[in-house]
Amino acid sequence: MSEVRTATVLEATPGERFHTVYAEAELPLGALPGQWGAFHTDLSNPLRPGQTLRRAWSFAELEGERRFRLFVATVGPSTRWLAAQGAGVTLRFTGPWGSRFKLDDGQGPAAFFAAGSGISPLGAMVDACLARGRQVRLCWETAEPSMQARIDGWRAAGVEVDVGPRLAPTPTAATWWLAGDGPRLDEVNDVLGAPPERVERFYTPQPSAP
Ligand SMILES: Cc1cc2nc3c(=O)[nH]c(=O)nc-3n(C[C@H](O)[C@H](O)[C@H](O)COP(=O)(O)OP(=O)(O)OC[C@H]3O[C@@H](n4cnc5c(N)ncnc54)[C@H](O)[C@@H]3O)c2cc1C
């Protein structure tokens, strides 16, 4: 997994705050829903001279053995670099990584809370639950609901979907998974009570400069 792998960008879809990349890996990916790749940019890493910047991006959708989507919030240097990569570009990455954050083997109802780009791993997990015939609830806290077609598809498949800028999910009989902005997950999980292995923190917001 630590060997550097390659994938070709098939389609790049810009959005106001989120960017979607559809790509095909050269070799079978072997990724489970919830896993991520460590993607290499061409940008030099100011903290590690001689190295390039690398970022963790979750496999937001897994299709067949080699195709995947990334869903990335454009917030800083690496994500702006990714947003500039068009069809035909070769991406370099290691992985899949992450064996802690994964679906259980149960068949009971599953529920997901995504803050912003946290929809990436959770969307792949929603797809996997649907394929297994599990009842699914999805709460996606976002001010800009991209991927409307995907949301419509989930609703048509029977997923109970709530999308909005500020959601307040309450505990249910379902098993909950959460992903995205760390502090926001902590606030929501104070109510939901999911164990640490079902919470994937992407980042902690930096305080803005005075
Ligand atoms: C396991 C794991 C999986 C991840 N999967 C994804 C993913 O699928 N999609 C994704 O967009 N990010 C994901 N992230 C976050 C991602 O690795 C980077 O933090 C992000 O891409 C920012 O990189 P940057 O160099 O552009 O900006 P940076 O300079 O690294 O960050 C700038 C600032 O932006 C904020 N920030 C960082 N990430 C985000 C974000 N996702 N949404 C909003 N604000 C953010 C933080 O306040 C940060 O200080 C994941 C992180 C982890 C640990």
Could you explain how this protein is built, in words?
By secondary structure, the chain is α/β, with parallel strands linked by helices. It folds into 2 domains: 5-97, Elongation Factor Tu (Ef-tu), domain 3; 110-203, Rossmann fold, CATH 3.40.50.80. It is 19% helix and 38% strand. It is built from 4 helices and 12 strands, in the order ββββββαββαβαββαβ. The longest helix is centred in the middle third of the chain and has 13 residues, at 119-131. The radius of gyration is 17 Å and the shape is globular. Flavin-adenine dinucleotide (FAD) binds at residues 36, 55-58, 60, 71-73, 75-79, 98, 116-117, 120, 200, 202-203, 205-206. Flavin-adenine dinucleotide (FAD) binds next to strand 4, strand 6, helix 1 and strand 12.
**Oligomer status:** single chain
Mean pLDDT: 95
SS content category: alpha/beta
Q: What is bound: which ligands?
A: flavin-adenine dinucleotide
Amount of beta strand: 35-45%
Q: What is the class of the largest domain in the CATH system?
A: Alpha Beta
Question: The CATH topology of the largest domain is what?
Answer: Rossmann fold
Distance between the termini: 42 Å
Give the C-alpha Rg: 17 Å
By CATH, the superfamily of the largest domain comes out as Nucleotide-binding domain of ferredoxin-NADP reductase (FNR) module
Poorly predicted spans: none
CATH architecture of the largest domain: 3-Layer(aba) Sandwich
Q: How many structural domains are formed by the residues?
A: 2
How would you characterize the largest beta sheet? Answer: 7 strands, antiparallel
Write out the strand line-up for the largest beta sheet, numbering strands in chain order. 4-3-7-1-2-6-5
